[in-house]
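Good morning,

Both structures are done.
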Amino acid sequence: MNDRRPGEWPAGLSPTPVATAPDDTPPPPQGPPVEVPVPEVRLVVTVDLTGRYDTHAQVSHDLYEQTRYSTDCHTAVVRLGEDALRVGMSLGSAIASRFFLAAREVEIHVPAGTRWAYIATEAQQHMRRYAADHARTLNRTRTPG
């Protein structure tokens, strides 16, 4: 048996050392390290439903088309116009279904002086319901232990 361990060069066959150039770089300055602040970048998705709508189907179709390829984002901004609010049914539920998994925050903008402020509360209630249902579904599909 020999005294060589796995991974070592056999005796007398070790590689020749490579000569390195002297290091001419000055030593780094002593003192506390400098921290440079990194700004936070957030992706904001905007959905514009301020156009002219005559039916609920048009509002639903436009919401679907604008969010069809959307990705996860920090904030979703949904702008609702008078026509969308007038003809759209269950807008809070529709908005919640599109963003309850994709956005951390959802802002719903309505025209000033309108009676449509309840849409935000409705969307929040639906988001809670959808998130709870999603959690139950995930818990049911996980294998035990």
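Second structure follows.
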Amino acid sequence: MNKKQRIAAIIVILAVITLMFMWLRPEPFEREYRSVIYTNEAGQTGTTVLALSGETFRGLPGKSSFTGSLTADSDLVYELKLKESGGYFFGHIYTFTTDNHIRTIGIVNASLDLNKLWVMLRDVNERYGLKDQDGYIAGPAGTLEEAQQVARDIISPE
């Protein structure tokens, strides 16, 4: 290999490393979503603001993720990790019980560009008197119809 070929090879390797670094580095993310709280049985039961704050990680296709926190009703804060799952992000919110078992207290679905959220949180269900029903929070939305459309858009992306 002559000197020109070595220099060209080094330039190509450095370019690939730089592109990989730029692609894989975490990106800060922060957004608030005006949201609707609803049940399938009772319809709209309230409104709230959901907030996501953290970092997005682009991986290989199908391997992107988000790590950070979800805030609901401005005082319910949860640590969260979302992983890409077939066209949308999916994650569980959990806590440990007194006997060290894991207890799921929420489920989060989000569009891949994180512009739509569909959440189920046990604490919000209890706060709004939805203990016997599955309550959902969807945003951005201002009406029950918009909230239901957000859920459909996340689960069945075009």
